[in-house]
Amino acid sequence: MDYKIFRAINRLVGRYPSVDTIMVMISQKARYVYTLLLILMWFRNKFYKKITIQATFSAGITLLINFFIKQFYFRARPFLNHNAHILPPIPSRMNSSFPSKHTMLSFAVATSILFYKRFLGCFMWLLAFLTGFSRIWSGQHYPSDIIGSAVIGSLTSIVINVIVWLWNSFVLCIVQSYNRACAFVKLR
């Protein structure tokens, strides 16, 4: 089934040159959109800095997860096992098809932003989806690689968001307890 879906998408390569160009552009340049967005968010205010830090941290953890998965699991890329149409950039190293680093990072950052800014997060999720789709279109990954990478990237951001929420709640509880204790001492 995975290969059938891959073939259904990948066989369209070459039929629509303008779509091929867009897919190559998304595959190669989407990461710059994410980087530019995070830089712009960093210079807005404290709230956006918090989002930027959390998204960057999620991306960093996602890179570590990607590294460890690739150390222990190998799946040949589609163009190595099948007669697939391939668009640039052709990987210089024939590394594992799963996970897709592009897709994992895109979904990690998009999910982190989605927690705080719905409209912007939805736009980034759409761009993340197109990033994953472009990787299938260009013959780099199977659909299951993209789905798995999207899940891992999103789950990483969800876990980090929960940890940050718990930590902030813990710190707030301690600060409030301290303030109550100080107020009680002053009343005596």
TrEMBL record:
UniProt signal peptide: none
Do you know which InterPro entries this protein is assigned to? PAP2/HPO, PAP2/HPO_sf, UPP_Pase
The UniProt record lists the Phosphatidic acid phosphatase type 2/haloperoxidase domain at 52-161
Key words of the record: Membrane, Transmembrane, Transmembrane helix
Please provide an example of a Pfam family that matches this protein in its UniProt record. PAP2
State if Membrane is listed as a keyword.
Answer: yes
List all membrane-crossing ranges: 22-43, 55-74, 104-134, 146-167
Q: Which domain of life is it from?
A: Bacteria
SUPFAM superfamilies given in the database record: Acid phosphatase/Vanadium-dependent haloperoxidase
Q: Report the PANTHER family cross-referenced here.
A: SPHINGOSINE-1-PHOSPHATE PHOSPHOHYDROLASE, UNDECAPRENYL-DIPHOSPHATASE BCRC
Name of the protein in question? Undecaprenyl-diphosphatase
